[in-house]
Fold this sequence. Notes:
Blueprint: H1 2-15, H2 25-42, H3 53-58, H4 109-122, E1 144-147, H5 150-160, E2 165-170, H6 176-182, E3 190-195, H7 200-210, E4 215-222, H8 234-245, E5 252-259, E6 277-281, E7 295-299, H9 304-320, H10 326-336, H11 339-358, E8 365-367, H12 377-383, E9 396-400, H13 404-413, E10 418-419, E11 429-432, E12 448-452, H14 458-478
Parallel strand pairs: 2-3, 2-4, 4-5, 5-6, 10-11
Antiparallel strand pairs: 1-7, 6-7, 8-9, 9-12, 11-12
Helix pairs in contact: 1-2, 4-10, 5-9, 7-8, 13-14
Amino acid sequence: SATSIGHRAMSTTHSSSNSGDPLSPSAAGSSAHALRHKMEEHNKSINQRRTCLSTKLAHAGLSSSHGDTESSSNYNAPLSPPIELATTYERNPSGDYGDGDIYSRSCNPTRRLLEKALGQLEMSFVNYPPSSSSSSTEDTTAPTYAFSSGMAAVASLLLACKSPVKLLLPRDVYHGVPTQLHSSLKDHGVAHESVDMTNCNEIRQKIKENIESDGTLVVWIETPSNPLCQVTDIQAVCDAVQELRSQNNETFRILTVVDSTWAPPCITLPLSLGADAVLHSGTKYLGGHSDVLLGVVSCSPLTENGHWLAERLNAVQTSVGAVASPLECWLTLRGLRTLHLRVERQCQTSMKLAEYLNGHKDVVKCHYPGLDSHPQHEVAKRQMIGPQNKSMYGGMLSFEVESESWAMAVAGAVRVIRRATSLGGTETLIEHRASIEPPERRTSPLGLLRLSVGLEDVEDLQHDLEIAFEVASQVMMSNK
């Protein structure tokens, strides 16, 4: 047992010192450290308990090693990882770089820390301590690649796919993705088609219609969707795709990619549900302070397509070079340390605001997965699960008023809430989505306003909205 091993190790420690001398404080600390190490060496079950997700987040970027000897380089190590700004590194006299870094486009220590931390988080399939029957304490890391923006991550992922490439996109999706497909990628053979991602039968049919002899079909899942908060059943879609894969030739790949920007790792873990890859705009919740521009893709180590994509995406990251800067990576690592705390608060406040808006006389409709009236509420209850196995429905919601002018009047009257694009920061933002979408591809209702809920007191936010509705009502009445 661990206790008997501890006794044996302790007796060895005592026998090597003068039995009559009292144990000094420094010797006590060193002996305890050595004893813990010996206990772990002899009894691996001591570390069977898997580290909770919140602890992993709090330690993002830190070394997990505590050193085996007094000379361990981990002692006196910084508890905030350094920002490595160097772009090039000196070669050995022999001309060999060995296992060291060469050039920051292909390798940067700060970026590597972020990629490792996110890769481990995406594989945290249990957000709370597992049962004692767990057979392994090893953390599987998803191959992860950080890019200069979320859209750079999207483009790099598509470049990594074997052509011809076609995407099945949700009908409700962040407008930047179809805009990229209609502009920069239009002349490069990347096609796309819209599908209702909440309808597995429609998805199956669309996949069957688009199976070719060669190339890649990307089933692009965005959940919750932007801005209508539609929730896709990731596991159901991945199961359907896998069933069709088994009937297909090996030269044509069907990839499942989840844009989980609105549901960061402390809410949803898409790789655990069968996805081949998960993408985040790190600008949003991962960074969390409206001061980062970064995108990230993690590939599943559990699927053959995930391995295939990881190898190709690594090559694209190195050769194309749209990499995240060391400062952006460091800021994102800093953001990860409070991710679970921020998101938990944002989810709680969003739920209260959604209930308020859902019952407001001037609101035509409120879109939030946590509402019982949401069409995919049951899916969200299963899929959007926080560290304590409790449903967390996200920090994003949207609501509709009767017209575009009504919406702009409400947005114009807020004071605590700020009018701005983007999301996931500490401040609450409101945005009229239809006015920033390309007119020829506008999908948001004209009366819709999107809220990114921050960390303010919910009473202040609710009061701000209440006054804004009153002001907007007066403005609209005065023009009748």
